[in-house]
Amino acid sequence: DISHPAGLIAKGLLSDPVPHCHIITTTTHKTLRGPRGGLILMGKDFENPFGEKT
Questions:
Q1: CB neighbours of 12 closer than 8 A, spacing ≥ 6?
Q2: Largest CA distance in the chain
Q3: Which residues contact 25 (CB under 8 A, 6 or more apart)?
Q4: Are 29 and 4 in contact (CB under 8 A)?
Q5: Residue 41 has what pLDDT?
Q6: In the structure, what pLDDT confidence band is assigned to residue 12 with cuts at 50, 70 and 90?
Q7: Which residues are CB-contacts of 33 (< 8 A; sequence separation ≥ 6)?
Q8: What's the pTM?
Q9: Distance, C-alpha 2 to centroid of its chain
Q10: How far, in Å, CA of 2 to CA of 20, rounded?
Q11: DSSP H or E stretch at residue 9
């Protein structure tokens, strides 16, 4: 969960956790300052449990 440091990661002040994780969760309304919502990020080598490919 990167909800609190997400803004610092987006700005490049903290290292990107994506190369080290299969799944990352975050919110859009804490440090990203968007409307209330959530994000689930999955690595390319992880099978999508929702059955969709983008």
A1: none
A2: 34
A3: 1, 2, 3, 38, 39, 40, 41
A4: no
A5: 85
A6: very high
A7: 7
A8: 0.68
A9: 7
A10: 13
A11: helix 6-11
pLDDT at res. 54: 59
Name the burial class of residue 2, with classes exposed (0-12), middle (13-18) and buried (19+) by CB atoms within 10 angstroms of its CB: buried
* Segments in 1-54 forming alpha helices (H): 6-11
**SS3 (DSSP) at 40:** strand
Q: Produce one character per residue of 16-51: b if its CB has 16 or more CB atoms within 10 Å, e if not.
A: eeeeeeeebebbeeebbeeeeeeeeeeeeeeeeeee
Taking residues 16-26, what's their average pLDDT? 87
Q: Which two tokens stand for residue 24?
A: 């990352």
